[in-house]
Model the fold of this input.
Amino acid sequence: MPHETAPAVSLQVLVITVSTTRGVKEDRSGPLLRALAEGAGHVVTGHAIVPDDPEAIGQELDRALSATNVDVVLLTGGTGISARDCTPKVVRTRLDRELPGFGELFRLISFEEIGAAAMLSDAVGGLARGRLVFSMPGSSGGCRTAMEQLILPQLPHLASELRKESPLPPKGSELVKPVVRSRITPDPEPEALPLAAPALIQPPRRGVDVTPMESPPAPELETPAAGWQAAVAAVGGRLVPAGSTPIPDAIGAIPAAMDVLTSASARMRLTDDSGRSWLLFGFPDLLRPGSKVIAVREALPVAEVVALHRWPARVGLCCELNDSLLPDTEASLDEVSTERTGKPCPEAGSLFAVDTGAVWVQQRRYVRRWDGRKLGPEENVGPAIGSLLLGWSQR
Done:
């Protein structure tokens, strides 16, 4: 069944041209991407030109993904097979979820246009920190194909999927700022922003003339009394891109758990000064205070899993780590059970998981839930973990 047509929205788009040989005068694809985006009703907030260098591309992409006035990042160049072509590799390290269909369809359409040479292009698209990222070839023809046949027709639907809980204002809304900026800057508070008539974006500059685009200062969040952001503040942690950080083996070997974690729309890493590191999974993202966030850390017998959004309640799977955010598996079952449910657990076993009003006790290969009134049925460990993660990802 085809998707319903999403309402028109005006997205904020940043363009990055990747080229060591093309300057402002030689760049044809960057201005084309800007023109196509603006022609579809979107606002271009910046355009940068960077060399074919992984560090330079990564820094520019990180700036874009940290900015408050960027919804979509369009990259052109560096998708071929030469030694210096590295854009797709850099982009993939920032993606929380790749959209493989974008590259597959692009090569299929390109095959009809240019033949077998289409297989040389590693076009890539996906989601990163709640933004859409698309990397296209450096040729203007390839950019036009990707934009007109794939990206622009789907942007309204993709935006509506990403913003279901916080919809983008419709085109023409007073919240859509018509000011076009030539570099990434954090948006001022709405009341402090004088609306101006749309202006042509200034062309990008490079070489000795260039003032590098500065990364916007991270917004200071008012730490809520509860929720995942409060948990991050409580551990004194920092959020950094997850890159290619793998899901810990102890949880990755459980299909039911992987089904839940791979459905997350955003992924980042949380680190603290003591060296602890958790992989965070956001449902639907890692932007809103109300998001459901599950933290996973390598441990035994299963990974440490914490439902950060339930903070200050300590909820999750217990493990053997003595610096865990939860009671460890060797903690007194009766004491933890009495604290959580008001009564000691009537069955012997080891502590498996904790919630605000229940504990799970493990007996060999089986897990049972105790809520202070009755014991639940026996469940195998794997399905029980999948069921717990599914519940925490939704409430």
Q: What stands out?
A: Residues 140-162 form the longest helix (23 residues). The chain is about 30% helix and 20% strand. The domain at 12-209 is CATH 3.40.980.10 (Molybdenum Cofactor Biosythetic Enzyme; Chain A).
